[in-house]
Request: fold
Amino acid sequence: MASPFSLVLHTHLPMVVNHGRWPHGSDWLCEAAFECYLPLLDTAHRLVADGISPKWTLNITPVLCEQLTSPEFQKELSFYYENVRRACVESREHFERDRNRKIVDLTHFWEDFYERMWELHRRIGGDIPGTFAELQRQGHVEVITCAATHGYLPLLSRDESIHLQLRTAVQTHRRHFGVAPRGIWLPECAYRPRYEWTPPTGRERGGPRTLRPGIEEMLAQHGLEYFVADAHLIAASEPVFMYREYMPLRGSLGNEPPLEVPRQARRSPYRPYRVTSRGGTGSAIVFFRDPRTTVQVWSREQGYPGDVNYLEFHKKHFPGGLRFWRITDGSNDLGRKEPYDPAVAAERVRGQAQHFVELVREALKDASADGPAFVCSPYDAELFGHWWFEGPAFLEEVSRRFASVGVTPTTLGESLAHVPPTATVQLPEGSWGEGGDHRVWLNPDTEWTWDRVYSAEAEWVELSRAGAAGGGELRRVLAQATRELLLLEASDWQFLITTWAARDYAERRVAEHYAEFKRLSEMVRTLAGGQPLSPEAGETLRRLEREDFVFPDLDAAWGEAPRSA
Reply:
């Protein structure tokens, strides 16, 4: 058969509905829907209509699914659509007064774009996840899952928290897509093997070490067969525990021998492997990101998205926020940007798509010299359309050209039939973040967030035990406290703090979810002690259930290890 290629799209935004609108809030989700999710669906439908099955693997995170299917999101998207339509008209009037014909034409371009996306949204009944589910039933895509709220699994201090993230993910996926997921996108592609662990910060820092299972063991307990990791993990000779400046390694606190891990030869990222931890009781299959091809798409500096003819993301016209300019050059001087030309950009897409499929063909040819091989090409889905406006058109052109070079698109699940894992490996700890370790999420600017996460995790475990035999109202309060813990654990907050992308917003969200968790904790104790809730407490509970509505079937018992383990 032809050589297999797997495109994997990680589709995620944190809980933003009911938490502000602009610049960080529901507008963020509406932008992604109009510029990424709907264009990807439009592209997939066009390919299928032409007899081309895209065979994408998509992760749609549980917290994103919950938002996209909520009535609150539908209201926000309608409001957003009316705003952008008005922006097209008002911007056109402004540039007509300036007699700027090129940008006047672009206001029509945007008007047509938003109208087409809105019509698609209407045609699918506003159900973005359900439409991807239908594509999966038809065999054109595979939908996998992610941790419930994108919690950074290696740094969570309790196994119960990881079980909660995974069980909630599987249950929510089954509710939205009708089947259990086979695979998972680990948040930030972050992995941790089995070893003796102590929290890197907080009150328990430097305390007794606990043998924690490897992530692959916990995936196996929840029926999750495979995940994606970055290529640097397979190139390492032994596990390297990355946050050593925060946590002493075994052997550095006493006289114990250092942790020994069998060395392994450098292995190819063009094959799947079965990953285990030393002494572990479960395993999972791991796919690795191909560094050779993905840099061409991922990098704005070195790759296709930085082409000077493509739409400039950062320059917007206010009021309205529409983008009318192209990248123009490598400078950050927004005053030098020239008007965007969609026809020229489309021509560049065609040329770069051809370059990409040739690059994939060459990578597969080289890797196949040592046996069956395939290319795994994972990206944040929001790159395609939101950050890189031409991205969906690029994916369409790539899909149309693969057959001509002997490359066969396959989903991750299908690829195992063509290139099954033939070797078992042990992996180091790491992520796909800067430095390949945890530094983006754990650093001096974010330590305080982990202090709150760890405090809430420990308290939640106690609350779950205390409320396990409680009645309806107690279980209801405990479920809401569990939601607040899950939302607090989202890795997005540390990322936004570290990168300064939305530091104030992220810091506020951490503080808010921790404060709400503490309020609910007091309610649990009140009810467990046989006392009724005050009217004020009851109103707080109802408010939080409306605002943080995700996972309606959530059960605090989901933090327990599966009985079959």
In short: The first strand starts at residue 3 and ends at 11. Confidence is low (pLDDT under 50) at residues 237-264.
